Fold each of these.
Amino acid sequence: MTAPAQPTAPDLLYSQDEEDLRSAVRALLADRADAPTVIAATEADTPYDPRLWEALATGIGAAGLLVPERLGGQGASHREAAVVLEELGRSVAPAPYLTSSVVATETLLALAGDGGPADALLGELASGARTAVLAVPFATPPAGPAATLATLDGTVRGIADAAVADVLLVPTAEGLYAVGATAPGAAVEPLVPLDLTRPLATLTLSGATGTPLAPPEAGAAAVRRGLLAGAGLLASEQLGIAEWCLTETVRYTRERHQFNRPVGSFQALKHRMAQLWLEVVSARAAARNAADALATGSPDAPLAVAVAQAYCSGVAVHAAEECVQLHGGIGMTWEHPAHLYLKRAKADSIALGSAGGHREAVAELVELPAP
């Protein structure tokens, strides 16, 4: 009698290829998305730099990491995409990577393979020629409603990156449709978000027409797959935020002197940064576990994603708060980038489901009573 197969332990380490990808993305962002550049972008009407996106999407090939080679992508996995998001989190660079290259791409991948419109659109997304967003509120969790509209008529609020997208993937009760952002009957109105590096918008459809991508049941499953991947890899962005905040805070407290001593030598601050380091290390394990579970197609992926989001969102917010406070007066200024990280962390904490919602999901998945 054959013994049942034992579950494979998750691989939480980074491969050499992943480290090489990290180096390339970090060098690009250091050159094109340093703190002064990002702050200036938040003050402009167009926060996204097309040249940065072209270099990231086409030059490095990051836009097509999740897309198979037969459809024009790189044929990589969620592990590599997670590395890109870590670096985007470290720089809070304004780029539609999470929304287009992860959520929208993963949604379309659930429908690909028959040579239909989903395949053609995936090729365009992989090349960086076009971007797409899933037209649901950015706060929608993976297990949330798959559609907020009955037909291609109505309003959807709080869609991340809709103002800069070329294509809107609109789930309705009649199925999933691809609607051009500038198509007749489609109006995108920018909102003023807390996080100025990831703009939100309201989509109003009135007599719009779109390309059918999937019937209701298949479309709903595709949407949930896209949201699950987005939530899982958002943890890697939150990890990048927390890592930058910790690194920058340690550096600053070493250089800042008070009473002829580095302020980082004071025991109270040492304890706070040591505690933050422990949280960041734990967040790295949770984020890597989620990325690996998604990459391997593990049946435990929903649980890994829920755990990662339940933990990493709080760590990112705590790290950003400590960064602002331990930088003293300079941390409160517009010129210092600390406020960008705090706003991104706060916005991410309610994106694709809140930490409380993910904790409830964990309780349901492991069959424990909700707290």
Amino acid sequence: MSDRDPQPVERQLPTEEARDLLALVREIAQREIAPKAAEEEEAGRFPREVFTLLSESGLLGLPYGAEYGGGDQPYEVYLQVLEELAMARLTVGMGVSVHTLASYALATYGTKQQQVEHLPAMLGGGLLGAYCLSEPSSGSDAASLRTKAVREGEGWVLDGTKAWITHGGIADFYTVMARTGEDGPRGITAFLVPGDAPGLSGAAPEKKMGLKGSPTAQVHLDGVRIGDDRRIGEEGQGFSIALSALDSGRLGIAACAIGLAQAALDQAVAYATERRQFGRPIADFQGLRFMIADMATQIEAGRALYLAAARLRDAGRPFARQAAMAKLHCTDTAMKVATDAVQILGGYGYTADFPAERYMREAKVLQIVEGTNQIQRMVIARHVAGPEGR
């Protein structure tokens, strides 16, 4: 492997504070995350101590208000932090994105009292969150979920099973969407459920192709009792809360995808400039040079796309269409770039001696989570061509 260090990403950041923040993140990533990534992913080990460090460093609540322990950073900055973390290890970058997603409902729709009571611990108190929308029989058709919340006295009783939950079984809090009324989207309500609530349990983690260090599991709710003070928003508002959260969450996945793609490109360039065939580095051959040029161009385009969507969000303007475009393009780019990186490394790319094969396995899940890329195309088409069946 070449000793050639990858060039730092050229970033356009709005403030000196943001530049200092990215420097801190890069230092933590290079010192605490990247050196252990391959070994821990192979062992399927979740780095909880890294998330504790990120919380202590103020990096688990970046886009939320400082009054509750957040970082008061615009999404434009927060997403670039995610990219740097994912570049070092996708389990960490995606874990921070999921935690931010899990905190969104309370931070955006919670009452002042709820926010004062819960947000400081969620954003800077070492807690880790999970987001519970999908179920075994409702994935893309999320509005058909069956988990129920029934009123009992001053509170609610929750019963059901959530599926494909990142941090399932290890999270300290769960944002749960449950049915409180009629079938369809209008009968769904959001709840904040503590991880140690009696009746809540996590199944054995799924055995996955990649991202083995990030636990994904079903979460069972068997007569879980919570007070009405843990209901987020109004009854029946849960589905709109969930969709609003996913618009922002998709930008997080897009940023993570670009981080992974950048890591794969850096690996490919380092190898190609070191590996010699026919008396010269293989990076001198036009076929590989063109591959590298295409990889770099698609990464740069993806970064520009997710940042453009983030700036719309920061300005308070609609960004759902651009979020879907960013998620679609950036995750497809991650898959293509990771696959090309394996090709550039040749036989070595197919071995676990180099991280290229891990990047390829991990990239695939990014095209699936938080709305498959087929769903993103449906969302984009509705915005561009109008709803179906008019």
Amino acid sequence: MAGAGLLMLLDDIATLLDDVALMTKTAAGKSTAILDDVATQTKVAVQKTAGVLGDDLALNAEQVAGVKANRELPVVWAVAKGSLMNKAILVPAALLISAFVPWLITPLLMLGGAFLCFEGLEKILEIFHQKKPHDVHEAVVDADEAAHKGVAPSSVRAAREKQMDPMEYEKQKVKGAIRTDFILSAEIMAIALGTVSTKPIWEQAVVLVAVALAITVFVYGLVAGIVRMDDVGNWLMAKSSSAAKALGRGLIAFTPWLMRGLSIVGTAAMFMVGGSLLVHGMAPIEHWVQMVLVPMGGMAAMLGPVLVHVVVGAIIGGAVVLCVELWHKLKGTPAAH
């Protein structure tokens, strides 16, 4: 009897082990399927944000322009860390807003779009004001008096930046880049969230975190490569190969043109991205774009919406600039950006 009981016990243990093995295999299969699903959703989310990535890259490369060569990589690293902090705030915020107040996403993105357009127009105004040395000199000598005389806040800011301590100037550049990154990251997170809106909350969170990390590494890794392109050129120039020397000379000659181009593209991207966020929240304009321009096909469908975004962005940006100028004139102080 004891032997039979022992055999029955061993048989029960064997059956139990078979059950455990089967359940483990099933769980592993489900986990693999879930991981595959998460990977697929992440890939789709990254692809959908690709349109914003080019603007993000151009804007961040442009923001580093003007920093001393030996400080370019530390500035890129500082902005990259700030970008990660932005996304650490945006990911949980996006999940909470999507779960409890989804209607709030569009107004918040529109506010961000208006700010981007405002910043873009301020950059353009600075270029024109920098061509007026007398006004800029007055702004430097006495910013408050210059404000009373009608010198634009952007002129005051440009003049102050010229006199600013290099480290303080660097801090201002980093702050500006992180501020701009916050809005672009918010749009990227909103697009990524839209691709997984029907998935469980934990899967949404995993996808958003994966997208945030992948995009940050990609964008700032590429920005670091762009700003140090001249160093690569110098390194190639030191090689014995004539082909390497020629390539090095080409890179050194091309880098200033690339940075100027990125500066222009980065400013234009502020209107394109900001305008698209604004138009998305303006139902009549968005409907007209989708129903009239897009069905045309060809260049009209490709460039038409972009042109609408830029025009709307410029108008809203101009309105915001006027409001800010008026506010500071009423206060009697220059705008502090």
